[in-house]
Every structure is written in C-alpha cells, then in structure tokens.
Amino acid sequence: MAVSKHAIPSLSEYQCQICLEILIEPVTLPCNHTLCKPCFLSTIEKANLCCPFCRRWISSWTRYHTRRNSLVNMELWETIQKHYPNECKLRVSGQESEKVVDDYQPVRVYSIVLLIAVIN
Fold it and tell me: RING-type domain: from which residue to which, for each copy (predicted)?
C-alpha cells in the first residue's frame, strides 16, 4: 500500500526511547540514534559520554556540537512541531499529554521460573 508523502507520521515515530515522551529538541547522535534533549543532557550530566543505546563514544561529537550550538536536529524538531504542536506545547510546559501513543502496547514480562513451575 502506497503512503502519501503528505501523510502525518505516527506519534510513536517521534517518541524518545528513554523517557517515552514526544521528542523535544531532538538530538541525533552520530550513530543515528535520536533522543530528546532533556534525556541527552541527563545522560551527559552523569558523565556517560556514549550513546545510551549502542554505547558508541560521543565525547568529541558532543563538544563540537555544543560549541557550535548545533546539538538539536532542527529539521526533525520543526517537523515534530508542525505535526504535533499541542503535544509539544504540553511537554515543554511540563504537562502530560492526554493523547496516548497510538500504537502503545503494554509489555508483559514473565518469570522463567514461574513459567517452568506452571508447565510442570
């Protein structure tokens, strides 16, 4: 099925995989992982100068882009604001969005020990 180039991407495509909120001032790392700026800064404050997803070292990249004030992926940030202005305003103001990510499914984790006990 062809998707229109004008179709609005799913809200889940703009979700930070650390805080699970909409990406605010997204930072795209050299490894192409993206997270919201608050989560990125939190990671840096803890002196973890590597990608929180793949652990690639990013200290030089961080210094370079911090000096040039170019951490934020502005093209992505403008796209997110265009498609989801209300969610962005709520997140920036510190309020929770009433809209749940559209394809959110709760994760169920089972204990292997419990499953073995049930099977036997």
Answer: 16-55
Cα Rg of the chain (Å, integer): 18
Predicted TM-score (pTM) of the model is: 0.73
Q: What does the pLDDT look like over 80-94, one tens digit per residue?
A: 999 999 999 999 888
**Which pairing describes strands 27-28 and 34-35: parallel, antiparallel, or unpaired?**
antiparallel
Q: Is the CB of residue 40 less than 8 Å from the CB of residue 27?
A: yes
Could you tell me how far CA 92 lies from the centroid of its own chain?
A: 14
The rounded distance, in Å, linking the Cα atoms of 65 and 33 is 16
Domain regions of the chain by residue span:
11-119
Cβ distance 84 to 21 under 8 Å?
no
